[in-house]
Design goal:
This protein is mainly β. 6% of the residues lie in helices and 44% in strands.
Length: 358
């Protein structure tokens, strides 16, 4: 009898100790060592002349860029239509762009470029502020940049999609977009978003939807608002985990939101989405579109003058976060019309939220 009682007592203690250990040591499925710090140097003024651009950069003092963004000041009145995003993209040194041979073009980048371009009007309020999302993880300690490009668009009001896809057995962390040359002032990227290189997403033409997990590609949409340009180029960038890292336990969840507008001439529209409890924010995307971009192939907005003025980490009210922020959990897109009304136009935003499962 004493032996049986002692066995039960020991078994009970073992269960209690096991329960305490389960509480004290998080299970693999619930752990997450992903963290980010947002870095920004503040605003750079310009462009000061029409059909030109400025380039500015944000830099990680520690960690690697998993994504980044740009926020622009545009002033008021008709001239405010002239400032637009020309590029938001990773860089090896804070000035060099990846525009040559496609494929894996860089590794372990720590710099992000924000490039602002002008159309046919400028004012003294124009500026661009870049944001680098500086990423650390006990598992994902290396990254690689994949670039893809295509000539165009040259026809007015016809968007051109370019998709960059991560190598097999890696995960997408973020991405960017770029159009050149700046001398074609009506040319700009109007969308930069996560997607999948599969039939369900028409190989990148349909964006990742809210709640989808582990997209593997990034799409940039270029739009020419009516100017000429035989040398126009559109570039897409995907930021992926490094080679040789076992990412089978990593989850990158997409959060997405779409709102109607802007539809009136010379007006803007913001839209914000957050990660909630689905991991930590590592990047985001933005678009001005014809709507329903996660259920149909991307279509152009209602006017060829529509453009992006922002895609950046923010608070839940859409305000950009400050330099050194370690708790960013939202992403905001800011869109703007040109000098004419824009019926059936929508603003779209994406947040990528990562859990490395470590």
């Amino acid at each position: 009898m004493k032996i049986k009682f002692l066995s039960r007592l020991l078994a009970g203690k073992a269960l209690v100790i096991g329960a305490l250990l389960a509480l004290a040591v998080p299970g693999v499925a619930y752990a997450n060592t992903v963290s980010v710090t947002v870095k920004t140097p503040g605003a750079t003024l310009g462009p000061a002349s029409t059909f030109s651009e400025i380039s500015t950069h944000a830099d990680c003092s520690s960690g690697l860029v998993s994504g980044g963004g740009i926020d622009q000041a545009i002033g008021t009145g008709m001239s405010s239509n002239g400032n637009h995003v020309n590029g938001t993209e990773p860089s090896s040194d804070g000035s060099t762009e990846y525009t040559g041979t496609t494929g894996v073009v860089g590794t372990d980048n720590t710099h992000w470029l924000g490039i602002g371009g002008s159309g046919g009007a400028v004012n003294s309020s124009f500026s661009s502020t870049p944001y680098a999302v500086c990423f650390t993880s006990n598992l994902i300690n290396h990254t690689q940049i994949v670039m893809n490009k295509a000539a165009g668009p040259t026809s007015a009001s016809t968007p051109l999609a370019v998709t960059a896809t991560c190598p097999a057995n890696t995960v997408l962390l973020g991405g960017g977009a770029r159009t050149t040359p700046a001398s074609v002032g009506s040319l700009k990227p109007i969308a930069s978003f996560p997607t999948f290189n599969n039939a369900a997403h028409d190989n990148g033409l349909k964006a990742a939807a809210d709640g989808e997990t582990n997209p593997d590609s990034w799409t940039a949409e270029g739009l020419n608002g009516g100017g000429s340009g035989t040398t126009n180029e559109t570039y897409a960038y995907a930021i992926c985990s490094g080679s040789g890292i076992n990412v089978s336990g990593v989850t990158v969840k997409v959060h997405y939101s779409e709102v109607s507008g802007p539809t009136s001439a010379t007006t803007g529209q913001g839209v914000t989405v957050g990660c909630g409890t689905d991991g930590n924010l590592v990047s985001g995307g933005a678009a001005v579109s014809g709507g329903s971009v996660t259920t149909t192939d991307f279509t152009a907005p209602g006017s060829q003058g529509d453009h992006l003025n922002g895609s950046f980490p923010s608070d839940n009210s859409g305000n950009p976060v400050s330099d050194g922020t370690t708790s960013a959990a939202y992403w905001t897109a800011y869109t703007h019309t040109g000098g004419t009304s824009s019926p059936n136009t929508y603003s779209d935003v994406w947040a990528l939220c990562a859990n490395d499962g470590v």
